[in-house]
Amino acid sequence: MGTIENRTLHALVDAAVEGLPPAVQAAPRSIVEIGSAHVVVLLDGNAAVRIGRDPGMAPAMRKRQQLVDSIPESVGFLLPRSLGPVVELEGLSAVATRLIPGGPCPAGDGDPGQLQELLRSVSSIPAEPLEGLLAEPLAFCGGSDWYRIQCEEVLPRLDQDVQGRAADAVAALANLEPVREVFAHGDLAGHNVFWEGNRIVGVLDWDLASRSDRSTDLACIGAWNGWDNLPLIASSPEVRRAAVRRNTFRLQQVAFALLNGRPADEIGKAVTRANTWLRERL
Predict the structure, then answer these.
(1) Percentage of the chain lying above the pLDDT 70 cut
(2) Contact predicate 46/54, CB 8 Å
(3) Cβ-based neighbours of 152, under 8 Å, separated by 6 or more
(4) Do 87 and 117 fall into the same domain?
(5) Boundaries of each Aminoglycoside phosphotransferase domain copy (predicted)?
(6) Predicted TM-score of the model (pTM)
(7) 120 and 45 share a domain?
(8) Coil, strand or helix: which one is 38?
(9) Which of 111, 145, 254, 257 could be 267's S-S partner, Cβ–Cβ 3.0 to 4.6 Å?
(10) Spatial distance between the Cα atoms of 159 and 27, rounded to a whole number of angstroms
(11) Domain of 179: which CATH number?
């Protein structure tokens, strides 16, 4: 995982907010270690600056911000739209975005009606006009190469007693029957869905947006907001497909660590979590 020196981080923020109103530039800053690929700096009620942890992320960041800025306002919730261009400094990249109010709901919470409407709204975003801005399905863990990576790189690292269960889970995902593809956020849960009280107000982090089926986002909702809620949100066939996807989540995290050259101890922790989950849940 990229570690950004404090001096560089604040220089990136300065560059990202250049040209914005003085009140934004002078606002107190707080650093949020929010994801595996990004650090976010909040500018006290004014803006958020998203900074890539690793060098060379500027092209992908520009593409993602173009996607976010192109999603119609009619989607019904707030988006982290650009307040300025993507900037680069010492190989790192940053962009100032709209600040989304609220925050994530606790794990296991979330009004099913709001979650159902969220899934409907996201899956209704027209995918065709955004085609060139979308990621591959399963981009997080290898995209079109995900199955080979699982079989050759991930499964051999697991404990012997869970390798068969993992192989079955991977095969089940690979053999899912094709269904109608729609727009999918790709990580629609947790710290990416902001609430105020019982109402969803905004959605962040569109890096994994792709053409997929609704079970992609449904699986994320179930993993964070509670699997028991899913029959209230979607049809039985969609819930079954979502379970197939959920059963590979820990394996996908191992693949992500490997593909992104994470340190050996981080890869080891991901493998341990996968072993535990497979042993206890499958």
Answers:
(1) 98
(2) no
(3) none
(4) no
(5) 114-227
(6) 0.92
(7) no
(8) strand
(9) 257
(10) 50
(11) 3.90.1200.10
Contacts of 225 (CB under 8 A, 6+ apart): 105, 107, 108, 109, 110, 115, 189
Whether the Cβ atoms of residue 222 and residue 230 lie closer than 8 Å to each other:
yes
Is the domain of 163 the same as that of 92?
A: no
How many domains in the chain?
2
Instruction: Evaluate if residue 65 carries a pLDDT over 50.
Output: yes
Q: Who contacts 82 (Cβ-Cβ below 8 Å, separation ≥6)?
A: 65, 68, 69, 95, 96, 97
The rounded mean pLDDT for the chain is: 95
Q: Nearest-CA neighbor of 204 among 107, 108, 102, 115?
A: 102
Query: Is residue 28 domain-shared with residue 134, that is, in the same domain?
Result: no
Q: Is the pLDDT of residue 2 over 60?
A: no
Token couple for 5: 């020196």
Same domain, 78 and 116: no
* Two tokens, residue 3: 């570690």
Q: What is the CA radius of gyration of the chain?
A: 19
Rounded Cα distance between 82 and 70, Å, is: 10
Q: Can you give the length of the chain in residues? A: 282
Whether the CB-CB separation of 139 and 259 falls below 8 Å is answered with no
Query: Does residue 154 form part of some domain?
Result: yes
The boundaries of the domain holding residue 19 are 6-97
Note the pLDDT tens digit of each residue in 77-107. Answer: 999 999 999 999 989 999 999 999 999 999 9
Asked whether residue 1 is assigned to any structural domain, the reply reads no
Judgement on whether residues 92 and 206 belong to the same structural domain of the protein: no
Residue 191 and residue 60 share a domain: no
Give 87's strand partners: 94
Predicted pLDDT of residue 1: 41
- Residue 29's SS3 state is strand
Nearest one of 153, 158, 106, 133 to 256, comparing CA atoms: 153
